[in-house]
Amino acid sequence: MGEFELIARYFTRPVRRAALGVGDDCALLLPAAGMQLAVSSDMLVAGRHFFADVAPHRLGHKALAVNLSDLAACGARPLAFTLALALPRIDEPWLEGFARGLLALADAHGCELVGGDTTQGPLNICITVFGEVPAGQALLRSNARPGDDIYVSGNLGDARLALLALQGQLALPAERLERARQRLEQPAPRLALGQALRGIASSAVDISDGLLGDLGHILQASGVGARIDTRSTMGLIAESAYETCATCAGSPLDPELVQQCTLAGGDDYELAFTAAPALRAAVAAAAQASATPVTRIGLVQARPGLRLVDAQGQPVRQRYASFDHFASPAPTP
Ligand code: ADP
Ligand code: MG
């Protein structure tokens, strides 16, 4: 099988919304009148973002999910995506699984594969997504205001827990590992919540590198600071991570692990966002309409910096940096 047969067999599908899909020199998109295009790219490199032996359908899912998560953070609705793929060799069972996982998530969100590039090389997947958002309504990182509440969707920590277990740093019962691993390998982008928060959230970001680090991007872009209540962030811990911390109670892992998982876990693909306190009911309605739990964890303040406080309002020392590709060791061997 050659390059073009591969593209035809695994990555060519009829398009419905795009004006032109795979097969020509360019794809053609037709954004609706009055909409802005929201565009984002994410690259996944074997050994850096995923274990080379991960199940291919899960990898296909994740490669698109991390991109859709960026659209979610902007409040955009997915339209289409392109796929640039470097493959060490043509492995048909692998390609079949990869395409299946990728296209199932694409179909679930009405996001069409309209083009890409295919080349031989070390396994590397780069997706660019295109979404649409009513002009001027995209959620940005830069509009958080002092006095705004800070929220996080869903729960945090299972992806980090699975990573620690897969790296051999922590032993987990098989059933719990599988649950945590699902979060690491097949995250669910919060698209419905992102769109429901248009006109409500003053800023938003998706959590890919860890809550504190990603929230830090909002604070920096908005020129503000924040106070985070660690009692409420404790409540964000995901089920498997919670069970693990409870099991380890008394061992040195316990408080360390809770904090690591909730504050600096990474790969969560939840949304962190801010909204004026007058809009608390609107936030709750958006959460309900999108069937996505949200938790209020703190307050935007004028003073720059991120301060963690305990239930008594006392400062909590923060030791957890979030992930930085050029400052941290590779997360996978
Ligand atoms: P060109 O040489 O003009 O860049 P290619 O020969 O690389 O075009 O690709 C042929 C067609 O197949 C193009 O429409 C391109 O967008 C599409 N394509 C290539 N690789 C992929 C892929 N992995 N997934 C989807 N479409 C792809
Ligand atoms: Mg090409």
Count all strands and give the number: 10
Structural class comes to: alpha+beta
Distance between the termini: 31 Å
Inertia-based shape: globular
Helix and strand element order: HEHEHEEEHHHEHEHHHEHEE
Approximate strand percentage: 15-25%
**Whole-angstrom Rg:** 20 Å
Tally of helical segments: 11
Largest sheet: 6 strands, mixed
pLDDT < 50 runs, ≥5 residues:
328-333
Secondary structure elements and their pairing?
Blueprint: H1 3-11, E1 35-45, H2 56-74, E2 77-87, H3 92-108, E3 112-120, E4 124-134, E5 149-153, H4 158-166, H5 174-185, H6 191-196, E6 203-206, H7 211-222, E7 225-229, H8 230-234, H9 239-247, H10 253-264, E8 271-275, H11 280-289, E9 294-301, E10 305-309
Parallel strand pairs: 2-3, 7-10
Antiparallel strand pairs: 1-4, 2-4, 5-8, 5-9, 6-8, 7-9
The structure holds adenosine-5'-diphosphate and magnesium ion.
Task: Tell me what the structure shows.
The protein is globular, with a radius of gyration of 20 Å. The chain is 36% helix and 22% strand. The chain has helices at 3-11, 56-74, 92-108, 158-166, 174-185, 191-196, 211-222, 230-234, 239-247, 253-264, 280-289, and strands at residues 35-45, 77-87, 112-120, 124-134, 149-153, 203-206, 225-229, 271-275, 294-301, 305-309. It has a six-stranded mixed beta sheet with strand order 6-8-5-9-7-10, sandwiched between helices. A four-stranded mixed beta sheet has the order 1-4-2-3. It contains eleven helices and ten strands. Helix 3 links the parallel strand 2 (77-87) and strand 3 (112-120). The chain is of the alpha+beta class and 333 residues long. Helix 9 (239-247) runs antiparallel to helix 10 (253-264). The structure holds adenosine-5'-diphosphate and magnesium ion (MG). Adenosine-5'-diphosphate binds at residues 7, 11, 22-25, 83, 85, 113, 115-118. The site of adenosine-5'-diphosphate has 13 residues, from helix 1, strand 2 and strand 3.
